[in-house]
Amino acid sequence: MLELRALSFRRAGRMVLDGIDLRIGAGEFVGLLGPNGVGKTTLLRAALGLIPVQGHSSLAALPVHERARAAAYMPQGRQIAWPMPVEALVALGRIAHPRAAGLDDRAAIERAIAALHLGPLRHRRATELSGGEQARTLIARALAQETPLLIADEPIAGLDPAAQIEVMRLFRHLADQGRGVLASLHDLGLAARHCTRLILLGQGRIAADGPPETVLTAENLARIFGITAHLTHGPGGLLFQPLDTIPRD
């Protein structure tokens, strides 16, 4: 669903991404992890062809109309400029699909609204919603696009704990149905519990890539995040709790 080869990006003389090789397949929910400023957003935007980079992205190589049917994108910025109803905003996700294709737009919109529990808000102006409600609306818009791949940049930031868990469960459900999900995340505990695979970025390179228990090791946490943490297996998966920072030189 996505292949990156030797992807590199330099900003103001600093190497932000340095030779990234990455493949995302069907049935994967991949969490992209790393400290602030390490290049997670840049990597997602580069993969989508939204910024010029060196190297190859299978998505960026597609014509725009094909790209929009191959991958949906929820950006980190959540500014909603138009005072349009939630239902109409979610419906924007169907623009990529030509009506002549015979696709059931209404059914896709209703599925997305139901998945994010937006029924009671469907007639509210999106600009009048809380930040968390706006985030759920934008996730629903991406979901309504019904693409094989969903790319989301910090999708659970600002959501209350219940909504965070529901969104992570939704993304895992999409992967279990055979779709691919790539999401940048800061909550390592939820990433450990729900993602099928984690990618850890450090200094513009992939520092670790694999199942959560092989990525969230004491060594990786100390080297990349500068923290100690407690990890254990509990009902439903890996449990992760940050404990303390490690003094830096």
Helix content: 25-40%
- Rg of Cα set: 18 Å
Please work out how many helical segments DSSP would assign: 9
CATH topology: Rossmann fold
GO molecular function: ATP binding; ATP hydrolysis activity
Domain ABC transporter: 2-228
Protein name: ABC transporter
Keywords: ATP-binding, Nucleotide-binding
Notes on the structure:
Helices cover 33% and strands 29% of the residues. With 249 residues, it is α/β, with parallel strands linked by helices. It has a six-stranded mixed sheet, with helices on both faces. The protein has one domain: 3-Layer(aba) Sandwich (Rossmann fold), CATH 3.40.50.300.
Question: Which properties best describe this structure?
Answer:
alpha/beta; Rossmann fold; 3-stranded antiparallel beta sheet; 6-stranded mixed beta sheet; 9 helices; 29% strand; ABC transporter; 249 residues; 33% helix
Write the layout of secondary structure elements.
Layout: E1 2-11, E2 14-24, E3 29-33, H1 40-47, E4 54-57, H2 64-70, E5 71-74, H3 86-91, H4 105-115, H5 131-144, E6 149-153, H6 161-176, E7 180-184, H7 188-194, E8 197-202, E9 205-210, H8 212-215, H9 218-225, E10 227-234, E11 237-245
Parallel strand pairs: 3-7, 3-8, 5-6, 6-7
Antiparallel strand pairs: 1-2, 1-4, 8-9, 10-11
Helix pairs in contact: 4-5
Summarize the structure.
It contains nine helices and eleven strands.
